[in-house]
Amino acid sequence: MLVLLPPSETKRPGGDGAPLDLTALTAPELTGVRTRLAEALVELAGDVPASRAALGVSAAQDAEIARNAALRTSATLPAVERYTGVLYDALDVRSLTPARRARADARLAVGSALFGLVGAADRIPAYRLSAGSALPGLPTLRALWKPALAPVLAAVPDLVVDLRSGSYAALAPVAGAVTVQVLSERPDGTRAVVSHFNKAHKGRLARLLAGTPAEPTDVVGLRRLLRRAGLHVEHDGGTALTLVVPAT
User: Could you tell me the superkingdom of the organism this chain comes from (predicted)?
Assistant: First the structure.
């Protein structure tokens, strides 16, 4: 099973690993696109106003541009520890037992605008680049990533659970992947799409899937696993699941 997570805009600073080695990341066949983007991002960081415009950041966020400037030389962390925010707080990989962390490292991957795909244990620096960013002189990120990344994801032999947000899933959709929508249910039975807490629920779901010794091979097996874990999951056919949570 491969669980695809979205990245986060916020990144944990620092690190204890050697500088970025693009060839050591998961799916080395993506090295060419990664190199092109990394070089463009470092070069762009030399022009702060242009960086602000391309990355959609303000002057108060110039530290993000400085991170890009040091992309090749700064310390690294495992990707699943580098990303922060609501989803990754709920995932909380640092609290997993060694056995569960090993499964998490094998099963979790992050869709990235800069790296395309990184495994949970891949060591990466802090950076700033979003799926909607447009780097001067380059095609759109979707135009760059889809031809390279889509075949990599299509070749995954295991069940793929795609929890990426829409903009990152659009970089390289995965045919046949299981997707999960989160709905909140009010006491009167009416439902609404979860917005604010969507990431938290997906983080908890990722934690469950990362740690379980079970290995579902299709959407029915995944549905069964989630229901055994006490989750209210609905399945109307196909590869889409709906996670229903009480409204808060």
Answer: Bacteria
